[in-house]
Amino acid sequence: MDATVVVTDVQPVGSDTVAIRFRTPAGFEALPGQFVKLAATVDGEEYARFYTLSSPDVADSFEVTVGIDADEAGPFSRHLADLSPGDELELSGPFGSNHYEGEARVVVVAGGPGIGPAVGIGERAHRDGNEVAIVYRDDDPAHTARLDDLREAGATVTVTDGPLADPLADVITSAPGEQVFVYGFDDFVDEAREAIAAAGGDPDDAKVENFG
Ligand SMILES: Cc1cc2nc3c(=O)[nH]c(=O)nc-3n(C[C@H](O)[C@H](O)[C@H](O)COP(=O)(O)OP(=O)(O)OC[C@H]3O[C@@H](n4cnc5c(N)ncnc54)[C@H](O)[C@@H]3O)c2cc1C
After folding, report:
1. What phi and psi values does residue 194 have, to the nearest 5 degrees?
2. Which of 28, 34, 153, 176 lies most in the core, judged by the most C-beta atoms within 10 Å?
């Protein structure tokens, strides 16, 4: 669907990461791990970029998590970080088939702003009574409060700034009902796929969303 969405909250959730919450437009339905296209005019130029849901549902409001990389961030992510409640954006979506579908055990491998879908999927799977493991690579982690809550609720949460294979070997069981997800930018996705294979999993069975 296409809709104009209204910002209800913008919160820093890390030193280079913001969580932006929107009022859910009528008729909008989406699952954790799906993404939307957000568009706006910035300094007279029209931009549109994709962002993955970071809330466990979209019942009354929904959230996306945006990384604003000090070196690589472009005009649109910087614009999103400066939004305030009441601001409006154009939305299309949801898009994507690499989302949570009620699997009995989720293993989410996240890099950078990929932590958004990791916490959204983790919270939804926990609420559904399913098992949750998250392996998150970042040297300056975001969403640490929600990760702590998930850990306290029984999830296995590993935050690392090093190689992925060993932490993945600890959580990939390849048992029936287990689903591995990967969310992050291009280099991270390549590395995660290799690490899944090294940990005994099959990267071709993973649900992978590459941020570009
Ligand atoms: C399916 C999909 C889902 C996505 N979901 C998210 C999401 O949930 N959260 C999110 O922050 N982004 C997400 N992205 C990326 C997002 O769409 C933009 O590309 C990003 O915000 C940069 O936009 P920009 O206009 O600021 O920079 P641009 O000028 O478009 O990009 C500048 C360059 O920097 C790189 N870059 C920008 N930001 C980062 C970063 N934080 N880390 C590493 N490299 C970076 C880009 O890949 C590009 O090469 C997603 C992309 C896709 C395709």
Report:
1. -60, -40
2. 34
Residue nearest to atom 20 of ligand 1 (CA): 77
64 lies in which domain range?
A: 2-95
- pTM score over 0.70: yes
**Ligand 1 nearest-atom number relative to CA 35:** 3
CATH (domain of 11): 2.40.30.10
Beta bridge mates, 6: 88
Instruction: Let me know whether 81 and 27 are in one domain.
Output: yes
Burial of 59 (0-12, 13-18, 19+ CB in 10 A): exposed
- The minimum-distance atom of ligand 1 relative to the CA of 69 is 41
The answer to whether residues 143 and 174 belong to one domain is yes
* pLDDT confidence of residue 70: 86
Instruction: Work out how many domains the chain is built from and give that number.
Output: 2
Nearest residue CA, atom 35 of ligand 1?
Answer: 72
**Using CA positions, which residue lies closest to atom 18 of ligand 1?**
49
